[in-house]
Design goal:
There is one protein chain. By secondary structure, the protein is of the alpha/beta class. Helix 20 packs across helix 21 and helix 25 (about 585-605) packs across helix 27 (about 620-630).
Length: about 650
Amino acid sequence: MAAFRGKRKSLEANNIHQILERYWGYKQFRPLQQEIIEHVLQGKDALALLPTGGGKSLCFQVPAMAMQGVCVVVSPLIALMKDQVENLARRGIEARMLCSGQSRHESEWILNAAVHGNLKFLYVSPERCQNEMFLAHFQQMPLCLLAVDEAHCISQWGYDFRPPYLQIARLRDFFPKTPLLALTATATAEVVEDIQERLGIRPRKVFRKSFKRGNLVYYVLRDEDKMGRLERIARKLDGSGIVYVRSRKKASDIARALQQRGIPSAFYHAGLENSQREARQKAWVENRFRLMVATNAFGMGIDKPDVRFVVHWELPDTVEAYFQEAGRAGRDEKRAYALLLYHPADLVDSEENFRKSYPEKAFIGRVYEAVCNFFQIPENSGEGSVFDFDLQAFCRAYDFPLPEAFSALSFLERDGLLRFSESWAEASCLRASCSYREYYRCQVERPALAPLLQFLVRRYGGGIFSSYVPVDEKEMARALSASEDEVARELALLSKFDIIAYRPRPKGASLVFLKDRQRADRFSLSPETYLLRKQTARRKLDAMQAYARQTSLCRERYLLQYFSEDLREDCGHCDLCAARKTGLEGFRERARLVGKIHASLEQAPASLPQLIARFPEEAEERLEQAWEYLLAEEKIEPDVFPLYRWKGSRHGF
């Protein structure tokens, strides 16, 4: 086995091009992809720093297909793992994932398939790297490549630091000569250094693609009437758009408001059924509606090149998150817009969100004690216990504010004490628990069940005889022209007859105890889990607030400087560059428009849309810029919503 682990095929450059075209349908690589792939095929480590849309996944998928053995991919996002596993399966590539909620038996099936070379890709969470059963099997795998996705999570300076990522270094000890490829879309200079140090990348090698997006125009738009501004954006710009919001309720509310204004829109968030999310994403990709209003759950695995604008309704928590989400616009290299709707009141909201995201440690301790009491877990016991968990009922029982309780559970998860999983991220799973002969005999002896048995083999292939596969009961029902209840009854019968082993999707959220309950007087969170993370988050929020507030430095230069990349010239087309472009002429033009606005507001208060209607002869963009200047300089003030008056006027009283 040891000799096989290090064995690789000797390949010419055109072989990887054949793999690319055969499995992915592309005739050429994107910039840096080929260099990274050839570097990995030489058995060398690397960190690949590619912005959103840069094609990170192909950088480990293509070389793995050119090697003998299995590629283990460490990823922190269940939804992203699921998306990539399903994409690989559609291309005829054997791939599986290990995630929370799977039974021990199911996990063993998947691990054994990897050990015996029946998988090409095995996706695991960073928490799984701490699991002894996984480690025991991992040592026996014919590993050809270890890929670490979202590698910024391993750095305490990263915007999404996760302590379990630190365990990845332990995996390297078992295969010191096997190449490791770390990948991330966003990382500052200190994060880049930290990733390489913690993963033991030797010698240090970073493939870095410039973050500059010459076709992407960055604007910060000051407006209290955000819905009115969003409607004007949607009517003015062609093509598809994404509107990012913080809450599920806001996503649905804004989508409905846009629909009422005649703009085809839908909403997307993690609380939707899996089939709903897939259907909406597919409809949006196929241009059956224009705007997707979504939380940050939307974006993973999206490959829609013609997104013309991305709007952020609120301030994101980090520049990294903003840059990554904004970067989903204009992947076809044509002009696109990254627009942040901003009002000074947003700073107050962002501070309140920060407070809820980082509750006091004493509160986190109370939540931990309450969770243990809620499920009657005695001290020094409970490891491995799994419970259905209704977070709202739990908060009602203990009078906890829900946002802070959710954040507390997140910290307890990061510290390795428990795991809180929402049901949307987990699919139903099944596998055949009999031989091929018994499976087909059942079709003959029980003809009523034959259509379902035939569908399972056609849809999910022979892999169901070797390991669990995720299944969709709604899809089965549609294909068989049956109801979901009928499908559920037939699956239950097949399970009863021991033809399949079936694990239905959890009905709600689940909570898993990863360790025995700690004594109250011994409970503490590690500094890496809480204190350092909070300090880092504070710096990142300050940087995001500064981006929105600053009025001098070119937007793109600000973003690139944040990522330690020097842009010698201004972009020339962001809102701040546009305002400076005409120099004295622009100053005189603004002064002229300010005079007109002043005279108009002295006559009667108005909103910006009303003001634009009063002056149809003026360019809308120029009026908007003059309005934003007056807001920033506090020369106008709110009257009866949504109207504004000239400061000092007393209309409306």
